[in-house]
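TA notes, week 10

Several of you asked for a full example with nothing omitted. So below is the full record: structure tokens for the whole chain, then the designed sequence directly under it. When grading your own attempts, check the secondary structure regions first.
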């Protein structure tokens, strides 16, 4: 799990001023916290976190020597200048279920013998912090045309500690036969 150093946000500075000082405004809420806490992190750490983690990823925050286990609930990037603007973290508490999302990635999609159609990219679920997953990679090598893959076919989603928030028979992907083009009529 990634460990990111954060500090209490300087409330005297507006978010734009923080960003000019190479800091990114953030907040952490939930868990044992009685109210949301405004924090800030170094831009370099924020950029790395944005590139390597997704919504639902677990992250350990080092807040003034106190370790807070969290998940990323939201991350924002300015589309014009590509700068990270904000992170929202949800504090996790052992023994308390939390809602999250797992991202589905496909490996070896280039060797599929038919037309690949991915129908589901994120899977909402709830679990205890120790059972959370943030990504599931499906290896498509050897899957024949005609394959229909549902959530119930993916072992990671069969774990007894994970409660899916969508039906288990939801289709994740299908591989269809490639259609043959007919030759033009030469009549």
């Amino acid at each position: 799990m990634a460990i990111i150093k954060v500090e209490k946000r300087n409330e005297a500075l507006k978010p734009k001023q923080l960003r000019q000082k190479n800091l990114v405004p953030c907040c952490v809420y939930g868990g044992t916290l009685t109210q949301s806490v405004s924090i800030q992190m170094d831009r370099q750490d924020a950029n790395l976190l944005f590139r390597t983690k997704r919504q639902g990823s677990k992250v350990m925050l080092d807040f003034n020597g106190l370790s807070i286990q969290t998940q990323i609930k939201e991350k924002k990037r300015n589309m014009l200048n590509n700068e990270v603007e904000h992170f929202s973290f949800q504090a996790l508490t052992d023994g308390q279920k939390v809602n999250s999302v797992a991202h589905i990635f496909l490996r070896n999609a280039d060797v599929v013998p038919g037309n690949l159609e991915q129908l589901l990219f994120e899977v909402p679920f709830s679990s205890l912090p120790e059972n959370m997953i943030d990504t599931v990679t499906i290896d498509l090598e050897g899957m024949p045309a005609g394959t229909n893959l549902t959530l119930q076919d993916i072992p990671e989603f069969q774990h007894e500690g994970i409660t899916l928030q969508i039906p288990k028979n939801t289709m994740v992907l299908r591989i269809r036969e490639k259609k043959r083009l007919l030759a033009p009529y030469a009549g």
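The chain is about 10% helix and 45% strand. Use that as a sanity check on your answer.
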